[in-house]
């Protein structure tokens, strides 16, 4: 729907074109993605409850794992419920505000997920490469700081990207060629200059993916070399 203000048009909602426009496939896709989503929810909720209920699992590794499960759950929930509704709806619309919120949470949670995995890799590095210092280095205060950092950094990135998206004008077509509000298809619909937003998108995506993967890779290289240095097979 478009609202007019003199000669200018402002997009107030987007139409999500989804995965396919074939009506006969919509119920099939609904069932497939519903099953996937339910498995995701049940699996992650079960993991969180198991870790919280078993005192033997109250260790840094499982503490980080519970937060990774929580982030994965939120990540899936930011997209899946609306996608499922749209599979069974004739009008696949999302408000401009709803689109921005989905856009923000999707980016924030993806980046948070990257760095939560990075934190877990660091935890394993400390446990295997510095076992004598592990207890003191991975104290409760340190663990809380480590787990808070991905959330703060991820949501700060999401907010920055959302602000840049808000600076764009959407005054023409409102059909989004995707099943959720993602960066590239939104930029395609913008009427104003998208250079700053596109540059920020590529820089943020490239930096965070490269940085997180590099830290994980380096951590596991150290872990692998430490294991190889252990002489006895029993020690390994």
Short description:
By secondary structure, the chain is mainly α.
Question: Would you kindly provide a written description of the structure presented here, covering whatever features stand out?
Answer:
This protein is mainly alpha-helical and 236 residues long. The protein has a single domain (2-229), classed as Rhodopsin 7-helix transmembrane proteins (Rhopdopsin 7-helix transmembrane proteins). It is built from eight helices and five strands. The strands form two sheets. The protein has a three-stranded mixed β-sheet. A two-stranded antiparallel sheet has the order 1-2. A hairpin with a 2-residue loop joins strand 1 and strand 2. It is globular and about 65 Å long.
Query: CA-to-CA gap between the ends?
Result: 63 Å
Beta-strand content estimate? 5-15%
Q: Helix-strand pattern, N to C?
A: EEEHHHEHHHEHH
Give the CATH superfamily: Rhodopsin 7-helix transmembrane proteins
Defining traits:
disordered N terminus, 236 residues, Rhopdopsin 7-helix transmembrane proteins, two-stranded antiparallel ribbon
List the helices and strands and how they pair.
Elements: E1 2-5, E2 8-11, E3 13-16, H1 26-53, H2 60-77, H3 80-87, E4 93-95, H4 96-129, H5 131-137, H6 140-166, E5 175-176, H7 183-189, H8 195-229
Parallel strand pairs: 3-5
Antiparallel strand pairs: 1-2, 3-4
Helix pairs in contact: 1-2, 1-3, 2-4, 4-5, 4-6, 4-8, 6-8
């Amino acid at each position: 729907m478009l609202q007019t203000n003199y000669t200018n048009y402002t997009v107030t909602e987007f139409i999500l074109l989804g995965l396919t426009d074939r009506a006969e496939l919509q119920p099939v896709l609904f069932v497939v993605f519903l099953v996937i989503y339910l498995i995701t929810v049940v699996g992650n909720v079960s993991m969180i409850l198991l870790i919280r209920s078993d005192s033997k699992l109250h260790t840094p590794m499982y503490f980080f794992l519970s937060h990774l499960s929580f982030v994965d759950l939120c990540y899936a929930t930011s997209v899946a419920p609306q996608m499922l509704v749209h599979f069974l709806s004739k009008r696949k619309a999302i408000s401009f505000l709803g689109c921005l919120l989905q856009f923000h949470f999707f980016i924030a949670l993806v980046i948070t997920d990257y760095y939560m995995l990075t934190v877990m890799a660091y935890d394993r590095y400390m446990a295997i490469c510095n076992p004598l210092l592990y207890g003191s280095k991975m104290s409760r205060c340190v663990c809380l700081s480590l787990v808070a950092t991905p959330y703060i950094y991820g949501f700060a990135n999401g907010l920055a990207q959302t602000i840049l998206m808000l600076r764009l004008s959407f005054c023409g077509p409102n059909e989004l060629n995707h099943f959720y509000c993602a960066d590239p298809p939104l930029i395609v619909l913008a009427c104003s200059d998208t250079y700053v937003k596109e540059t920020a998108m590529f820089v943020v995506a490239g930096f965070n993916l490269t940085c997180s993967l590099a830290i994980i890779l380096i951590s596991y290289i150290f872990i692998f070399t430490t294991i190889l240095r252990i002489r006895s097979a029993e020690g390994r």
